[in-house]
Amino acid sequence: MPNPTGIPPDSLVPLGTSPTPVWPDARVSLGPGQGSGCTSWRVDLAETVDPDLYQPPRTLYVRCPMHGMHGRHLGTTLTFSNLLEDSTVWELKAAVDERLMLRPGQKVRLFSWGRELEDDAKTLAEYFVAEKTRLDMQLTTQQPPGERELRRVRVTSTLLQTRQLTVDPGTTVLELKLKIEAAIQKGRHEWWSEDGLRHTVCEGFTWLVVSSTKADPKADLSAVRIGDELCSDRNIESIDRKKGILVLRRVETGRVLKLVEANAILLELPPEKQRLNFHGMQLGADESTLGELGVQQDDPIELEFLSPVTPNQLKIIRAPAPAKKAKAAGGGGKKAKAAGKKKK
Q: What domains lie within the chain, and their CATH numbers?
């Protein structure tokens, strides 16, 4: 069979055979094979890797095709650095789960060159994963474990980024609402740089953008959209009172921006303004505990509230229809007037 790639024949293994190594190998097409169709081949890299020279990876990239870190950017690549030599596949999957805040019913699958790293107990070194390898990720559904000790829930909202809150089975609905209010007033946010080396953390108040504005380079103002979630950071200048300019961070990315103080509103969310849903049902009784309601570890709690920056047009659309006025007896419609003229 011709070998147009120039790869030594000894390092080629036909697909469909049982490979000797566990390394996720590269695949190379060799063109037409004997008979009809084409034959696919795989480069057996384990034959060419010297175990004495191999070094376990310290940095890895995980390409996430379905959503980004906060669920908005498609195709985000996550970076994990400072990995240990004995880091296992399970530990890497757990780190991905934490970074993306996945639901308990979602399972992470990792692939390298089309081969799945399916044995969670094995280390990355046992798979001969090289330094700065780019792994592909897929999400599948699974049956959540039957019993998960409740220590944390994830509060989701269509208007705000997901918050992780520490709770226990005895936490009541009212106590959870108070925790949400505290997280809004002074919540913790963290971001990772693209190279995975810088980890930024801040605790600050939550702001919402009132109206969309374009960037103004002359005034050093950033472009923002209505409803964007921002947070203050005590490590940067939060308010420039002289110029009436706010210096805040985007909760989504952690980037610093500047905007007019009048174009942002501080979000306040007391318990009476919150509506919590779990599995499609409202958590109405404030004295009920999460354990009684069947909430388990990392279960999502949906938060609903009326945004203070809701556009006026949307308020009009959502407003209830006005009640129709009842017609007076013997109303003065056109038909009644015409009947009155005939009688005369």
A: 9-47 (no CATH), 60-141 (3.10.20.90), 149-312 (3.10.20.90)
Q: How confident is the model at residue 325, as a pLDDT?
A: 72
Q: What's the whole-model pTM score? A: 0.71
SS3 151: coil
Phi-psi region of 277 (alpha: psi -120 to 50; beta: other; left: phi over 0): beta
Q: Long-range contact list for 247-250, CB < 8 A, 24+ apart?
A: 248/207, 249/189, 249/202, 249/204
d(CA 295, CA 281): 12
How far apart are the C-alpha atoms of 285 and 233, rounded to whole Å?
A: 35
Does residue 42 surpass a pLDDT of 60? no
- CA distance to 12, 228, 338, per residue, from 30 (Å): 10, 52, 92
Strand partners, 258: 247
Distance CA 167, CA 151 (A): 5
Q: Which amino acid is at 252?
A: E
Mean pLDDT in the chain? 79
User: Which residue bears the tokens 């890895």?
Assistant: 60
Residue written as token pair 């009009």: 316
Asked if residue 118 lies in contact with residue 108, where contact means CB atoms within 8 angstroms, the answer is: no
Per-residue tokens: 206: 């939550």
CA dihedral 162, 165, 171, 173 (to 10 degrees): -30
Tokens encoding 100: 């993306």
pLDDT in tens, 155-191: 999 999 999 999 999 999 999 999 999 999 988 888 8
Cβ–Cβ contacts within 10 Å for residue 315, how many?
A: 10
